[in-house]
Amino acid sequence: MVPPLMVRQGELVLERLTMQGFEAYFVGGCVRDELMGRPVHDMDIATSATPEQVVALFERTVPTGIQHGTVTVLMEDHAFEVTTFRKEAEYEDHRRPSEVQYVRDLEQDLQRRDFTMNAIAMDRHGKVSDPYHGLQDIEAGVIRAVGSAAERFDEDALRMVRAVRFASVFGFRPTKSTWSGLRICRDKIAYIATERIRAELEKMIAGPRPLRGLELLRRSGLLEYINAPVPMAALRWSAKEAQNDWLAAIEHAEGAELPELRWSLLLQGLSVQGDEAGPLLKRWTFSRKLSQAVSNIIIFDEVMNTMNEDHSISPEARRSRFIKTALRLGKETAEGWLLRRKALVKNLSPETEGDVPGKANLPTDFPEAEWFRAITVFALSDLELNGGEIIAATGRKGGPWLTELLNGLLFAVAAGELRNEKNVLLEHAKAVVNTNGHI
Ligand code: ATP
Ligand code: MG
Fold first, then answer.
1. Range(s) of the domain holding residue 130
2. How far is the CA of 282 from the centre of ligand 1 (A)?
3. Is 238 among the domain residues?
4. Which Enzyme Commission numbers does its entry carry (predicted)?
5. DSSP structure string for 120-162
6. Pocket test residue of 118, 151, 191, 205 for ligand 1, highest count of atoms within 8 A of CB
7. 81 assigned to some structural domain
């Protein structure tokens, strides 16, 4: 499942190299994904030509990682990373080496790759070279290290997280020896920069079974050694299968790809509370913005859930609580929460198995969407009246009372009780100041 234009231009690169007497193959993720029938986004090429020879052969090249033997070749619409056959030597501190050594043949190049499914090459006629039987492992659904797992993980500890990521995204399982290698080497993950681990977590969460990934990280013990210590107590491993159902249910819904929606579902399914989620993601080096967004969506949901559990609450009180929460947590949070809710209600069949927290209480109608649409102001700056004008009109000194008053006005406008017009708001403000003589 490679876009035809990409294949054609990739084949041109291979052809040009082979016509000059070099060997050249598609290799790695693109071959694996093609054999699995998955979409291919980019195609890597391995060749016997040196980087200098590659640069000389093509009109447009970029020396992306020339010290590692990689040159990017720009064709008409697509770019290809072309890497000279190499092996990696001198691993230091359990990270990928800074030095590489070029080698003569493909098989040695494949040998340095992490897993058998990533060590398959394909020539321009579609002929496959698979010395480590990656195809067999793909068919069996297993992740197997090339060579001794413990050695490969000791060389480069990131491979352990990659193993878990592939297991999660593809629904594969590590072989016995790969798993035991992982358990032996797990503490070495502490040498790897958290950003690189985070990049793997990002791919995991984007896939269909992120919970499986997190669980493998936990079962292997890796989670405890990931540079930033994770508050394990915060992760309560219950209702997990149901959680996968949640994510599966929203898979084709609008907004399903948004990381804040996916993380909010995943973490909430592990009973991580809204105020715990932000710090947790920040420790995993996710951006402040994403961490905050996830945290806010969960907090929003917690507020709404308390109301679901309270059957005595009136629809008006529910609406007013919704609006207050939307103002407090912001428009984007409310939007995110609504998208998530909509996706869940639409796609979670009543037969969905498992004990999904809050599912029994999930209302199937959506007054909230209506309430949300009716909100015309979200911030004090949206009001037609500002604090200075209130001070001028009342002759009082500013203070906390003013913020409180402004927030009251904001709520009243958001709830449709007051029009957002300067004189309307000012009259109301004066009346409040007069009745509350003590402020
Ligand atoms: P993705 O779908 O995420 O692109 P990928 O397998 O293509 O997966 P890349 O990081 O793009 O992953 O790497 C391309 C290829 O390089 C891999 O298929 C593998 O053969 C090799 N590779 C990548 N990282 C490592 C590593 N840490 N150790 C050994 N080989 C690696
Ligand atoms: Mg790739």
1. 1-135
2. 26
3. no
4. 2.7.7.72
5. -EE-TT--EE-TT-HHHHHHHTEE-BSS-HHHHHHH-THHHHH
6. 118
7. yes
Average pLDDT estimate for 237-256: 64
Nearest-angstrom CA–CA distance, 433 and 402 = 10
pTM of the model: 0.80
My answer on whether 69 and 173 are in the same domain is: no
DSSP string, 4-22: HHHHHHHHHHHHHHHHTT-
Residues 6+ apart with CB under 8 A from 3: 40
Q: Whose CA is nearest to atom 30 of ligand 1?
A: 113
Among the bound ligands, the one closest to the CA of 38:
1
Strands 79-84 and 44-47: parallel
Q: How far apart are CA 379 and CA 330, in angstroms?
A: 8
Distance 30 CA to ligand 1 centre (A): 10
Dump pLDDT digits (tens) for 117-165: 999 999 999 999 999 999 999 999 999 999 999 999 999 999 999 999 9
Q: Would you say the ipTM is above 0.90?
A: yes
Residues 343, 280 within the same domain:
yes
Task: Indicate which ligand has the atom closest to the C-alpha of 199.
Answer: 1
- Look at the block and give the residue holding tokens 């949901």: 301
Query: Angle formed by the axes of helices 158-170 and 210-220, to 10°?
Result: 140
Within 6 A (CB) of ligand 1 lie 28-29, 44, 96, 113-114, 118, 156, 158-159, 203
CA of 39, nearest ligand number: 1
> H helices then E strands: how many in the chain?
21, 11
Binning pLDDT at 50, 70 and 90, where does residue 342 land? confident
Q: Which residue's alpha carbon is at the smallest distance from atom 7 of ligand 1?
A: 29
Question: How many Cα atoms within 13 Å fall on the side-chain side of residue 309?
Answer: 8
